[in-house]
Write a structure and sequence with these properties.
By secondary structure, the protein is an alpha/beta fold. It is globular. It has helices at 38-55, 70-80, 89-93, 148-161, 165-168, 178-186, 197-206, 237-248, 254-262, 277-291; strands at residues 20-29, 58-67, 84-88, 101-109, 112-113, 117-121, 137-141, 171-175, 192-196, 214-218, 225-230, 268-270. It has two domains: 6-109 and 223-275, Periplasmic binding protein-like II (D-Maltodextrin-Binding Protein, domain 2); 115-220, D-Maltodextrin-Binding Protein, domain 2 (3-Layer(aba) Sandwich), CATH 3.40.190.10. Helix 1 (38-55) packs antiparallel against helix 9 (254-262). Strands 1, 2, 3, 4, 5, 11 and 12 form a seven-stranded mixed beta sheet that branches. The protein has a five-stranded mixed beta sheet with strand order 8-7-9-6-10, sandwiched between helices.
Length: 292
């Protein structure tokens, strides 16, 4: 149940008319900060949550901890007991025990849930046989909260040639700046690029010459990250629902939009289990390769 009836949203106060104090523990995966300041992102998040809390009668004190992967999160979980956790989707799927948390929200951008990745080139024509790309140089986008571009390319190469991209291509470079990923390909300094479709389309809108690049392959839609909350143990269910409502409406508030800009999100929408299907299939494919 994500939202109460509208009557629940009146501001609460204690008997002295003061805001009710609440403590919130938040876990953030390190990969959310590849090209942004942790301090800036943490400050933006705290400002937004405190603003939302105050609107509904709460004085929210927030502690934040960081983790590198699902193994480190598991080791910290019992000590930290987080209320809210931002996961890269790959790590969420890999979590051995998710009984403590439930996935609630995912990113929504350009009218869809998830990102599609493109393999583009100036050197090769549209839909060229992938075997012709052997020995080429490739730039791979590796942005905040996601390593899915490289994993998709790795799976694509393995599925056709039984070898990884590092063995198939002459040079594999990663960059978290989409401009630095695509421009070397546009100017002929690199042969290929893997880039999110929405970022490529935006650059092509600003510079139509980008449309001269060939599209050699495209991925399924992959959800890059998920926001989870603890399933139970909330001292106040009203406060719990205020947090969910605040997250869902983040794009409507100035402080929320500032945070979403830092995290490169546009909107959050309720999670559905089927959103994980394509990433699960990708992870399973790479697991089969690693076991062979």
């Amino acid at each position: 149940m994500l939202l109460f009836a509208s009557t629940v949203w009146g501001a609460l106060e204690n008997n002295e008319g003061e805001l009710i104090k609440k403590h919130l523990v938040v876990g953030l995966i390190d990969t959310a900060f590849d090209d942004i300041s942790q301090n800036d992102a943490e400050a933006a998040f705290k400002i937004y949550v405190r603003t939302v809390g105050a609107t509904y009668g709460y004085d929210v004190d927030i502690d934040v901890f960081y983790f590198a992967d699902e193994e480190e999160f598991t080791s910290l979980q019992e000590k930290q007991k987080p209320d809210v956790v931002f996961f890269e989707i790959w790590n969420w799927i890999g979590l051995a025990d998710d009984s403590y948390l439930e996935p609630l929200l995912v990113t929504f951008d350009e009218g869809k849930v998830g990102e599609r990745y493109l393999l583009v080139s100036k050197k090769f024509e549209d839909n060229s046989d992938i075997s012709l790309l052997k020995g080429s140089s490739v730039n791979v986008f590796s942005g905040p909260n996601s390593r899915l571009a490289g994993r998709w390319l790795d799976s694509l190469i393995y599925s056709k040639f039984n070898r990884g991209m590092d063995q198939f291509f002459s040079v594999v470079s990663e960059n978290n700046d989409p401009i630095q990923v695509i421009l070397p390909v546009f100017f002929g300094k690199k042969d290929l690029a893997v880039i999110p479709e929405n970022k490529f389309d935006l650059m092509a809108e600003l510079n139509p010459q980008m449309n001269k690049l060939s599209r050699l392959a495209s991925s399924e839609l992959f959800v890059p990250g998920v926001i989870c909350m603890k399933k139970e143990g909330w001292e106040s269910e009203h406060f719990h629902q205020v947090l969910i409502k605040g997250m869902q409406e983040m794009h409507l508030q100035p402080a929320g939009r500032q945070m979403m800009t830092l995290f490169k999100m546009s909107q959050l929408v309720p999670f559905k289990p089927e959103y994980l299907d394509t990433v699960r299939e990708l992870k399973s494919a790479l697991n089969r390769v690693n076991k062979s």
